[in-house]
Amino acid sequence: MRAKIVAAALLAAALAVPTATAVAADSYGGGAHAWAPAAGDTGRISVKDNSRDGDPVKAEYFRTASADTKRTLWNHSGPGTTATSGDGSKIYKFKACDENNGDPDDCAPNWTIR
What's this model's pTM, rounded to 2 decimal places? Predict the structure, then answer.
């Protein structure tokens, strides 16, 4: 009987603890689509080129370990391709941009906060 009570208590405790899931957030700017976490990892971001304008796309982002350093992930591979960053500390703020050589970039109007 005691074993059943202990097993029931352990099961209840396991169900009460929320599981950590990496829910992706998205940003769109021009033909660029960026999302984090990428590949289920909060330390990675991806950017996809959804345009056929011949210009690269990028994701500008910030990591928790270096909160004042803006980083850039470029995708120069062309339409339909995706670039993914290396792993690092959690990405907490980002936006997608379509590069417009010589003109202002076409970026998402706001930062996506995670």
Answer: 0.80
